[in-house]
Records
---
Amino acid sequence: MNPEVKERIDRLAREHRLTAAELKALIDSRTEEAAEYLFEKAREVRRQYYGTDVYLRGLIEFTNYCKNNCIYCGIRRSNARAQRYRLTQKQILDCCETGYGLGFRTFVLQGGEDPYYSDDAIVQIVSEIKHRFPDCAITLSIGEKSTESYRRFREAGADRYLLRHETADEAHYSKLHPPEMSFQNRMRCLRDLKALGFQTGCGFMVGSPFQTTDCLVEDLLFVKELQPEMVGIGPFIPHSDTPFAEKAAGTLELALFLLGVIRLLLPSVLLPATTALGTIHPQGRELGILAGANVVMPNLSPRDVRKKYMLYDNKICTGDEAAECRMCLQRRIESIGYHIAVSRGDFIRGRKAV
Ligand code: SAH
């Protein structure tokens, strides 16, 4: 391997930072050999905090109505071909019940931005889940809200919040979103969430249209600066009923490389091997774990709605029951020498567990 590349990876593993120019050079000059070396370092760092534990999050996709019109997303407002659905509070609680039995101790409520669910409704759902499953963590992933709304969700007991920043480059942001959506507001939301004490997740798509290496460098610098507890990344995958239908998908190779880099930038971060990664390659999620990820998010949504939460084409696991997804992932994780932990899987702050 080029000694300069090796030195850069060693320093990233040791100091958990690189300059913008170094990150750019690392990405642009990556080779298979460099990636293997990076993943080895990433696994080593991850092991120091989390051993071979992989944390489970049960994903409940409770609505695909959305008032937003993100250009890349299959459930965008303008997609008249999306069959819309909403889950009732009872259906959501039933998903949690099933999930609890399967060993889930985190429930992620994700949806489009659906005004049908008022803040009061979300507060009620969160309170009820907390009441029934006091040993579980709740993650919300319901988009941009006011500071006050976030405060109410937090007080109701929500522990975590996922809001990918999508891209840290403002000009790039405006190519992925309609003019009524603002980069500044997305950033405001993320800072509010951190300040309110949520374990906060940001993240971005890899290979989204118009993304350059400079955009990725900004993403990495932003991730380092925000110090989120979680980072969700996965390849962009086109959806046939969006204006990006003909755009190329992101690659497995670059997504894995960035997982490795993020593990070294933020050693104890919670890093999912995402469904999108599993969609572009049959072993995508296993490879994600081997590149430094430590979280998987199997689907807990009722089977009859799964095909409707189509953010991108060919999304996997849309025909399976919750139990099947759980067991399939367990097999996959164990096949690579890791194991699924039955615990909330909270962020470890500054302390090495092992
Ligand atoms: N409304 C919520 C949840 C969005 S869906 C929110 O705004 O946070 C969760 C994530 O799926 C998005 O943040 C986006 O990064 C990802 N996503 C959407 N469309 C995608 C596509 N075509 N390819 C890959 N990922 C996509």
---
Amino acid sequence: MISPREVIRHFLTEEVTITPFGSGHIHKTFKVAGRKNFVLQRVNNNVFKQPEIIAQNNRLAYEYLKEKHPGFLFPTTLSGIDGKDLYYDAQGFPWRVFEMIENTFTMDEVASEADAFEAAKGFGSLARNLHGIEVEGFKPTLPRFHDLSWRYEQFTEAWQQAAESTKQAARAEIEQAHSFQFLVTEYQQLIQRGSLVLRVTHNDTKINNILFDSLSRKAVCAIDLDTLMPGYFIYDLGDMVRTFVSPVSEEEKDLSKVRFRESIYRALLDGYLSEMDFVLTDEEKQSIPFAGKMMTYIMALRFLADYLNGNIYYHITYPEQNLVRAANQLKLLQLLQQSVA
Ligand code: GN1
Ligand code: MG
């Protein structure tokens, strides 16, 4: 990899210290400490094949928010010394820099109802403030990203072409994944009935994509706007359910620790609806119970497919990691299926 120290010179002239930062699965992220602090990121352009679309969508949102909701915090990238937002290194990787938003922190697991409420309100306020923007101007940065039918097909392909030994190792998870196929049908029906409104959604509303204020613990802003694009509200609400309700994250190996916390679920719904209640249609609200199941299922399928494909998509630190993540998500899905109606 080209050294981040070399790359940062294309954005800043001062002396800085660079250290690895964050817990994302896709990009490489660094903290840059100088007179001010910055976040430096090498964009994974194997995943995001057209990083310019990210920039274009973000610009549209930024301009709209600046006009309609001045004061709303929406993190944008810095221009490089050449005036461009993205710097392409000698290996063809795009890099970008954000200003660090100080006196904030992220969490990987939700500890309290108050935190669940705040984080959901944070994502909800982004959705509410973008309500009214022309959706047609936004292009998908990742086509069919949360299309459950397509994710199921991809899982099926991965399963069919995996080596026998890999399939054996994942036998229990594959069987469980098949047993939830009815959710794909439910998804298709929702879409076909036209029950959901196409909106500009965040599409990656996991708990660690909200910055909390270090003192007040209020939500400061949503980060990771790579997948800000047309979508349905269930994608955002569902990924919150997926990452908030269990006391442990998707990385937890001890499945007995994966639990559904009813009071956290209620708090996150309250927080989200405190912003979005008057925006969502009555028909959309009927699909609230489906949201968490759908997004938990989609992540189970994606982790499992990646394991079967030989771990080509998500960063892993040990060989079974994607299988562990899939098992974790399938356990959570079972709990959601029992508890949410
Ligand atoms: C990926 O890179 P990160 O951690 O922000 C993934 C999300 C998953 C998430 C699971 C572009 O997000 O869809 O929910 O991992 N993003 C992409 O932790 O695939
Ligand atoms: Mg992301």
---
Amino acid sequence: MTISNKLRSLFKSVESICVLTGAGISAESGVATFRGTDGLWAKLKPEELASFDAFLKNPDIVWEWYNHRRQIIQEVKPNPAHFALTKLETLVKDFTLATQNIDNLHFRAGSKNVLELHGNIERSYCVDCGRIVADVIVTPEKKIPHCSHCGGIIRPDVVWFGEMLPDGVFEKATNAAQRCELFFTIGTSAVVYPAAGLPLTAREHGAYIVEINMERTEISNIVNETFLGKAGEILPELISIMEQERRQAV
Ligand code: BV8
Ligand code: ZN
């Protein structure tokens, strides 16, 4: 794989890295993306399912969709791209991983400093009293789970369209994007805000932006270097180049 001299010299000395990941990094684990041809949205429309109004109108349909995705996520495993990021975290002093994914695969791969911008499908909470509920059971007989404490309706702990991101999480991600020397955007179509604004913020603060994606995206023209292809193949190669450069630099 050829990388630019600029990236090669950055690999030698960089100590502050920020990463943004999207559904594409989990594709090789078998988790469908949103906007690809086989994507989840191909069949359904985001506003039909990933919004609080949709949930209030059709909680059974929204729960059926999330329950289906939760079952898939329980069966899949992190892939080499997730593990490459776990390795990358050990190579530098300051590492932040901001993910739009709700599939928990970064934590399961061993990443430590993970900011879940859009929540986590394995967590749920009561709309009325806010109680966190870990193991929600949804069955054809019981399509809508209710809170055992107050009887309120329980929802997935994910950020829907029109909803604010969890308190403080986006601020931490923005600070990391502002201070990093090197920013990776991996497996995201970069159409959903405010997450998609992070690479732009990093760029404005002088970071070198590297994109890894199957296809060009909305931000390909503002990144410094794009690697087109599978994250599970490209990322491990990039990290091993970085390790070699840092060994030689010692
Ligand atoms: C908010 C829920 C403040 C959980 C999701 C008009 C203009 C700009 C913005 C807006 C607008 N109108 C509304 C907005 C705001 C809106 C938004 O951005 N809309 C977009 C669609 C225009 N944003 C919001 O509402 C956010 N909140 O703004 O709050 C506010 C509050 C109140 C009032 C006003 C404002 C909340 C956004 C969060 C929405 N929730 N998910 C869930 O069910 O998952 S979004 C959903 O899309 C997921 O979270 C997903 O992560 C995210 C982004 O998608 P990607 O991860 O990028 O996935 P995608 O399939 O698109 O792309 C995958 C890429 O990977 C592809 O490019 C593919 O080529 C590549 N790939 C595939 N395989 C591989 C690969 N790459 C490498 N290797 C592979 N193997
Ligand atoms: Zn409750």
